[in-house]
Design brief:
Layout: E1 6-9, E2 12-15, H1 29-37, H2 50-63, H3 74-89, H4 96-110, H5 119-136, H6 139-159, H7 171-190, H8 199-211, H9 233-242, E3 254-258, E4 263-267, E5 271-276, E6 296-300, E7 303-306, H10 318-324, E8 332-334, E9 342-343, E10 347-348, E11 354-362, E12 365-372, E13 383-391, E14 394-402, E15 408-413, E16 419-424, E17 429-433, E18 439-445, E19 447-456, E20 464-473, E21 477-484
Antiparallel strand pairs: 1-2, 3-4, 4-5, 5-6, 6-7, 8-15, 9-10, 11-12, 12-13, 13-14, 14-21, 15-20, 16-17, 17-18, 18-21, 19-20
Amino acid sequence: MVAKDAFVFLNESRTITTGAGWNDAAVEKLWLYNLHYFDDINAESAVTRREWHTSLIERWIEENPPGYGNGWESYPSSLRIVNWIKWAMNGGKLSPRAIASLAIQIRFLCDRLEFHLLGNHLLANAKALIFAGAFFEQDEGGVWLSKGLAILRREIPEQILADGGHFERSPMYHGIILEDLLDIENIGKAFGLGAMIKAETIGNMRSWLEAMCHPDGGISFFNDAAFGISSSLTELNRYAEKLKFPVQKALPNGVLRLAESGYIRLQTNDVVLLVDTAPIGPAYLPGHAHADTLSFELSLYDQRVMVNSGTSCYGSGLERLRQRGSAAHNTLIIDGQDSSEVWGGFRVARRAKVTSLRMSEVDDGYFIRASHDGYRRLSGRNIHARSWLLNNDSLVIEDDVTGMFTVAEIRFYLHPDVEINEVDVSAGTVSLRLPRGEMVEVVIQGGDLLLEQATWHPKFGVATPNFCLVASLTGTKIKTLIRWGESV
């Protein structure tokens, strides 16, 4: 909130001067959802905007009659209920009218819990009921609290996997859910309700998120993921420690397999490699999945080098479909098709399944090999297999494809800060310069190399120019050698 009637969400600025603005059909629905969340009333330095916030709450009540418009849908209702209660507990003054509205919102939500969507939406509903039950305390509050806790007890074992990952397998949504659970623990302490979340659950979730972050502290971009939506790893760890959860140990060098989630982290002193051998998510909830099977991200010397393309929009448009497709990720594409059939804004038809995963330590590094069957639906009934061999100064990636095909290509997206130093297309070599001056060489063997301009989407509403290395297979196998350090 940048003025009394001005807002910036998803990197887009708008003023809302009339009641109709809350539900303007010409505005992206996700932007309007953010308007109804009321996140700013609990943001950093929110106390300096308290007069605006007080006015905005009263205005929302006046301009959003019960049951009408985006703001009364269950997900934005859940986030707004929690934010109003947090604000009141942190010194904000809810008027009698606002208290009455809050109760109406909670009753309305109770009849529209998102059991049809499940996942992070249902956990958000449960959190709102727990906050409401603690805040109102009386008989009706007790019903809300019991209902919220019952959902929470049912959903945590379903949604939080044994390795600590959230089952939708998006690092961004994992961060949101971790903060939700910390908030629930916090309000339990504030109202003397006792421990709400097991310490083991919080610890596992924090470890999983750290494993899925790059050395710069930011999340990796698998499935729906963007910066600025969930709190950072540093912020979440600070919050957990304030709630008396123990300090997390730093991740050691070596191989860390997140077995239930399907991700693998390889780490040496100068390298972090994150590998996707995951399913697209729970079978009944693929809405935030991308066709990114066997993709990877790479950091060298604490700097991102190869990145998946990210997420800048929701909805059902062509750009949303492109960003979810295989060609927007560091993986192999056969005949222009996606490894999993993403469609609409949040749908997936036939899904790739990872098979034959093998991992081992070798003399001076680590080896991973896996295959997937996502292209078996094509006429060539293709199988894509990929291996990664990582040591101190090189990464060798080998891709091979069984079955007939017309065109197969691998794509490697470079972080925007990585400079192209020199390209020799005929030799299949590219020389890269990292932001701090380190040199990296990429050599393609068994494919024709092209350099394409592309875009990276680190935040909603943002498209940052970058480059993509594209190699078309000349046979059924292709090898990519990435070298750094003294070997370059």
